[in-house]
Design a protein that fits this description.
By secondary structure, the protein is an alpha+beta fold. Helix content is 37%, strand content 20%. The protein folds into 2 domains: 119 residues, no CATH class; 165 residues, 2-Layer Sandwich (Nucleotidyltransferase, domain 5), CATH 3.30.420. It is elongated.
Length: 335
Amino acid sequence: MILTYKIKHGRDFSDELRKAKKVAKYAIQTRSRSSKDVKHIGLKSMIANQILKKYSNKGRAKKVKSVKLAIPNQGIRLDKDTKTIYAPCLKLSLRYEFPNDFEKVNQIEVGEEYAYVSVSIPEPEIVKPEAWLGVDRNTTGHIAVVSDPDSGKVLKLGKSALHIHKKYKNMRRSLQKQGKYGKVKQIKDRESRIVRDINHKVSRKIIDTAKETGKGIKLEDLTGIRNSKKQAESFQYAKHSWSFYQLQQMIEYKAKLLGVEVAYVDPAYTSKSCSRCGLIGDRNGKSFKCPACGHVDHADSNAGFNIAMRPCIDRSVKERDLAEGTTDSPKEALA
């Protein structure tokens, strides 16, 4: 498994970064992969080779916005005793605070302010769980609701995310009307950082809960769902929201680090089926009521219980079916 750590380097690499940008532009224009062709630019050949390799393969790239100084494994020296990484070609020494349990340093990418250190770590064995937590992801209310069928407990997490989205959406709209597009980008970047932090905290709480209870995590499999136009407007947002899928990615990689299994279930009717009797109930906003058995619950909690109790699906099979044009969608609620 590969992890990337960010370290502040405290050096001025503006000249090297300017040269790196020239090399990247040359790679896009000529598709050259030889450092001899860019020797006149003056960038270290080890770094130039990495940039040429990256940008000469980008067939659709037409311009370069920003380029980092990439240093491969063979150009890196490591001292685990002092927790120091040294890159001779830049005379750059980095002290790191992350754990020493990595197998090797794959590469370092150096930007204006930070160095991004990529390391390989051994993946712990995934423990096969006997029980599951169901995680219902949402765009309204709490971004994640975790339901445990065994204990009946429910965790509601990330309520502030919706407020953040609305707040910054209105700010961007106002700035766009004023033609302040530079400010729009600043606001968008600020929102991204805030929401990313929320997703980090929510995913960490979900993984910690699963680890403490010895259970696996089930999520709805939304593969291919972007092509459907029949969902409510709020879910249309979810299908195209980077933050919605960012949470899923964070859950997946943090679960791998702790040996927690993550599985996926068919999303059909998870929000409409009764978690007690399996029949279709009445959902009104965040309220759920089953006319058949009389069960009343918070709609997201009910969905979470349904997700936890659903059988796991083989995502590789579903992806193959989607490629072939068949989804095998159920026509009625699952019991």
